[in-house]
DNA sequence: TTGGCCAGTAGGTAATTAACCTATAACACT
DNA sequence: AGTGTTATAGGTTAATTACCTACTGGCCAA
C-alpha cells in the first residue's frame, strides 16, 4: 500500500511545515509539493506535479484558494481538494462547494481532523468540519438568529402570506385575485404592503427574502 | 452519573423494541416512554412524561413527526429531539431543522450512530447522519446534477446574466439601463428573453430559479 | 464569400402592474 | 367610546411587461 501524495498550498510557511511534519510522521502520507499561493500552485500543477489530494488555504495573496480551485476545474483537471480555512461563513462554504471542493476543514481543527479529511477525500468521499456542518444547518434553519439584535422578524399577516405564496408560485395579480376572491386592487395593496414591510424594492428581492426566511414549506 | 432518559416514538413496534433493547443494554440510557404515533406522544408529554431526549420517526399515522415537533415547539416546550427517518430529501431535512430538531438520523444508520446522536443532542450539540450532510451539501452545490437527464441547463448570455444579477440586486429597469449604458427598452428585451429562456412567468420565479441554480456568488 | 443564425441593441402600442393617496367595514384591544 | 390593525378597494399617474418588428456585427458553414 503506497502513501497518499499530498500537495500543500498556504502562504504561511509555519503552517505548511506543521502539517508537513505531522503528515510525514503519520506514515500514510507523503507531501510531494508545497506552494506559497494559488499562482505558484497552479504553475506547478500545470507543469505536471503529481499528487492525490490538494490541501489548500483559502485566503492567500496572489490568487486565493477559491480562484485556484476555479482555475483547476476550468483546466478540466479532476483533482481531489480539501479546503483549509479560518472562514466558516456560508458564502465561502457555498462558493467552494460550487467549485467542487471535496473537503472543508477549519484551521481550528485538530491535526487528526485534517488527516481524517484527507483520507476521506482520497477515498472519494466528502469531509466537512463539524463547525462547517453546523454553519450550514443553522443557515438552513432560517438564517441563524444569533446575529444579535438585528433580526427583528417581520410579522406578515395571514393574507399577506397567502398573496406572497401565490406570487412566488408565479401567478399574476389577476389570477391571485381570482383565487382569493378579492379585487386586483386589493392584491396590489397587499403587494405594496409586503414590499413596504420587508423593505424590498421589487418582487425578485421579496421572493428571495421569503426563500431565505423559509416562509413556505414548498419552496 | 444518571442515565439519559429517552422517549421513543415510532409506529413500528419492532423498531421501538430494537432501539429500546439496544439502548437499555448500553447502560447509559433508559427508555422512559414509548408512543405509537405523534398524537399519543403529544398526549403523554403534555401529561407530564419526563425525558431528556425524544427520538421520533417522521412518517407515522395520526400525526407525523413533523407535526409532533411543530406542536411541541408551539406548546413552548423546549425539548431535545432526534429525528429518525428513511427520508433524506432536502425538503424534509429543512422542515425538521426549521422546527428545531437537534439531530437527524437515517434509519439505515447503525445502532452506534443512533447512540452517538442521542449523546450529542443530550449534551446540547447537534448531530446529523453523514448521508444527511451530504444531501445538504449536494443541494448547496447547486441542486445535484444526478437527477438524470432533466437538468438541461439553460445557457444565459453574458449580458443576460448581468441584467439578471442587477434585477436580483433590486435595481429598477431605469437603473439597470444606466449602469449598463443601454436603453431601458434593451433591458426590457433582456428580461423578456430571460423569462422566455427559463420558462418563468415573473421576476419572483426567475429570482428563485437563479438562487437555486446558484448563478451568482453573492446571493 | 455569401448566406444564415444569434447576441445585442431598440422602437411602437396595448395591457398589466406599481406608486402615489384616499377611504371604509370589521375586529381587537384599553 | 376611542384607537389601531387588517382587509378591502377606487383614482391617477408612472413603470414594467407583452407582443411584434428591425437593424447591426460576429461567427460559422456551404
From TrEMBL, chains A, B:
Modified residues annotated as 4-aspartylphosphate in this record: 57
Signal peptide: none
Organism: Roseivirga pacifica
Domain of life (superkingdom): Bacteria
Gene3D superfamilies assigned: 3.40.50.2300
Membrane spanning residue stretches: none
Organism lineage: Bacteria, Pseudomonadati, Bacteroidota, Cytophagia, Cytophagales
Keyword Membrane (UniProt): no
Gene Ontology biological process terms, A to Z: phosphorelay signal transduction system; regulation of DNA-templated transcription
Keywords: DNA-binding, Phosphoprotein
Any coiled-coil regions, as ranges: none
Annotated protein name in UniProt: Two component transcriptional regulator, LuxR family
SMART domains: HTH_LUXR, REC
Amino acid at each position: 500500500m503506497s502513501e497518499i501524495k499530498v500537495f500543500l498550498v498556504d502562504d504561511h510557511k509555519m503552517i505548511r511545515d506543521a502539517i508537513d511534519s505531522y503528515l510525514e510522521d503519520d506514515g500514510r502520507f507523503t507531501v510531494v509539493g508545497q506552494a506559497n499561493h494559488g499562482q505558484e500552485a497552479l504553475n506547478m500543477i500545470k507543469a505536471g506535479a503529481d499528487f492525490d489530494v490538494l490541501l489548500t488555504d483559502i485566503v492567500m495573496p496572489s490568487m486565493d484558494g477559491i480562484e485556484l480551485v476555479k482555475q483547476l476545474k476550468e483546466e478540466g483537471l479532476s483533482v481531489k481538494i480539501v479546503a483549509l480555512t479560518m472562514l466558516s461563513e456560508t458564502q465561502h462554504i457555498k462558493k467552494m462547494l460550487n467549485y467542487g471542493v471535496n473537503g472543508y476543514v477549519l484551521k481550528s481543527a485538530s491535526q487528526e481532523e485534517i488527516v481524517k479529511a484527507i483520507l476521506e477525500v482520497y477515498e472519494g468521499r466528502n469531509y466537512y468540519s463539524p463547525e462547517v456542518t453546523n454553519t450550514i444547518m443553522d443557515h438552513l434553519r432560517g438564517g441563524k438568529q444569533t446575529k444579535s439584535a438585528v433580526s427583528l422578524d417581520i410579522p406578515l399577516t395571514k393574507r399577506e402570506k397567502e398573496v406572497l405564496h401565490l406570487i412566488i408560485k408565479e401567478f399574476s395579480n389577476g389570477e391571485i385575485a381570482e383565487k382569493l376572491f378579492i379585487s386586483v386592487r386589493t392584491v396590489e395593496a397587499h403587494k405594496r404592503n409586503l414590499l413596504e414591510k420587508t423593505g424590498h424594492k421589487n418582487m425578485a428581492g421579496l421572493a428571495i427574502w421569503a426563500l431565505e426566511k423559509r416562509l413556505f414549506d414548498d419552496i
